[in-house]
Amino acid sequence: MTRRGHGTGHTVDDPLDAAQERRVRAVLALGGVPQADLPDGVQQVRLRLLERAASGREAPRDVSAWAAVVASNLAMDWHRARRRQERLGERLASLRQPDHHPSGEDTRLLSLAVARGLDELPDPQRQVVVLRFYADLPVRSIAEELGVPEGTVKSRLHTAVRALRARLHEDEVV
Q: What is the enclosing helix (H) or strand (E) of 4?
């Protein structure tokens, strides 16, 4: 579980050996993750292994198989997030006038307005918006992870979405 640092003369703990890393990359690639995102996927698998060890849970019996399953799940998550982004884009586009076809400039303005709107939200509201709409987590999971009731998550989402919508109308983006 240890690999020599590249030319540094010291060892670095790495939960994946070279063969396991190649397997993870292959699973991610076969799962449809773009080549540019493969290093991030491998790092996510490493991170999950390290988090598992740090939490005191015992190591998986077969690290290679466990890593492959995690990589497969990451590939599915990548596709879900991509579909989520596409659906979000479609919903935002449907708010526009039907006879208006967005140009690249319109899309850029909308993205900037949404980013500014997110920046202006209080931290708890921004957090639930990002977890719900960008990480595509269900309300129940968000509530569990944040340690708050589901109603609190729903309330924060409602308030945040209303504020973002108002911001977009104020900026005359939608």
A: strand 2-4
Checking 96-103 for CB contacts under 8 A at 24+ apart, the result is 96/174
pTM, two decimal places: 0.46
Q: What is the residue-level pLDDT of the chain in tens, covering all 174 positions?
A: 444 444 444 345 778 889 889 988 988 888 888 899 899 999 999 999 889 888 888 878 888 888 888 888 888 888 787 777 777 776 666 655 445 555 566 677 777 777 778 878 888 888 888 778 777 778 898 888 888 999 999 999 999 999 988 888 886 766
Q: Please classify residue 38 by burial: count the beta carbons closer than 10 Å to its beta carbon, then call 0-12 exposed, 13-18 middle and 19+ buried.
A: middle
In angstroms, the first-to-last Cα distance of the chain is 53
The residue type found at 87 is R
